[in-house]
Amino acid sequence: MFSTYEETLNWVHSRLRLGIKPGLQRMEWMMEKLGHPERRIKSVHIGGTNGKGSTVTFLRSILQEAGYSVGTFTSPYFEQFNERISLNGVPIKDEEIVRLANDIYPLAEELEKTELGGPTEFEIITAMSFQYFGHVQPADIVLFEVGLGGRYDSTNIIYPVLSIISSIGLDHTAILGDTYEKIAFEKAGIIKPGINVITGVKQQEALAVIQEKAFEMKAPVYQLGNEFTIAGHKSLPRGEFFNLKTVFQEFSGLETGMAGKHQTENASLAVMAAELLNNYYSFLIEDIHIKAGLKNAYWPGRFEIISENPLVVIDGAHNEEGIAALSEELAARFHEKRKNLVFAALSDKKLDKMIGNLDSVADKIAFTEFNFPRAAAAEDLYEISSHNNKHFNKDWEQLLENELKETEKDTILVVTGSLYFLSEAKPYLLQLIGNETY
């Protein structure tokens, strides 16, 4: 059992050695032992390749504006581990992490001795979130973000009031499959009988899979572009402006506090969810709550401008679709500026297409690496690039310091790639900028 936060985290992270073990049996076993806390929680389940975290953030912000207490379970964390389990946007306390781990530890030890085997790191954290919101600190509603896939994801033992599938992209193909249809099949695994499904999926072949699953489950589908549509979009200096028409009403003059055209889509998913909660589940959510919620929503590391002078943007574009959205946004929003890019990534991504896309928008591109088990080597990333103005530096701190020195008035520095890398890079960049030591 644990008495300190540090030893608790060491134990949780030690479960990484078990890797990814898709399946729900271990979760169901632990929930049975805990008295099924997951059944005590009113929840929304959010899956998809990209946009899950932003959609969670927009919906949480709307619900908070309406006066509700909102729990969230998200991954990965950006600034501190505790934020994975948060209440009203505030990460739970260190002592609560210790308490929850002590609830789960004896179960993990017992489970280890069974034919099911010990729980993974993600299963441990998911179980902690169920225990927290089910038995320790109930909330009016909890938003659960899927970790990987959907069908066999640890979160998929809940029976939510709404399911959201934000997008489909070719990520984690070794586990989820190498086509849009196969990945959509895994994501559609979160669809429950009779439960409304909201989706922003665009590929027709993926959408067909989701619609087929929803039909099988008698689950109504609300599709972006059909039951709710975006119009009048334009970019703002620090966000986006758009109008939205849903099956319930029309919203004009919506603004997001998060930049990027794709954020209007994530925001629309959240608005549609709020509309369904309002109309079918007795949540009193008014237009003013929706407008304020979208405008005030903040999610770190998503096209986040961390400095105006020098102009520095960080963006956790960690897969092919994320990189495409970033490249499109850079070309549209900063077409007049020279673009210097820094990229670090995990080795299990489709790096050739990601780097090829970055090459096409960058005036200069630099590659680096960071201390993480699956991190790609800087030199390997460099070799993949075909840019004529490229370099690499294994020391990411030195690289960022050098790049800041070269960021002049006509230049934007963009640091992108793995969220694990950005979580380390952001505080270091802010320190350099604040101290003007570059």
Please tell me about this protein's structure:
Monomer. There is one protein chain. The chain is an alpha/beta fold and 438 residues long. Helices cover 42% and strands 19% of the residues. It folds into two domains: 5-296, UDP-N-acetylmuramoyl-L-alanine:D-glutamate ligase (3-Layer(aba) Sandwich); 304-435, Mur ligase, C-terminal domain (Protein-Tyrosine Phosphatase, Chain A, Alpha-Beta Complex). It contains 15 helices and 17 strands. The longest helix is centred in the middle third of the chain and has 20 residues, at 261-280. The protein is globular. The N and C termini lie far apart (45 Å). The model has no long low-confidence stretch (mean pLDDT 95).
Quick overview of this protein structure:
With 438 residues, the chain is of the alpha/beta class. It is built from 15 helices and 17 strands.
Output the CATH topology of the largest domain: UDP-N-acetylmuramoyl-L-alanine:D-glutamate ligase
On the 0-100 scale, what is the average pLDDT?
95
The end-to-end distance, rounded to whole angstroms, is 45 Å
Class from secondary-structure proportions: alpha/beta
pLDDT < 50 runs, ≥5 residues: none
CATH architecture annotation of the largest domain: 3-Layer(aba) Sandwich
**Rg of Cα set:** 21 Å
Strand order within the widest beta sheet: 4-3-2-5-1-6-7-8
Specify the number of helices.
15
Shape: globular
GO molecular function: ATP binding; dihydrofolate synthase activity; metal ion binding; tetrahydrofolylpolyglutamate synthase activity
Family: Belongs to the folylpolyglutamate synthase family.
Pfam families: Mur_ligase_C, Mur_ligase_M
Domain Mur ligase C-terminal: 301-418
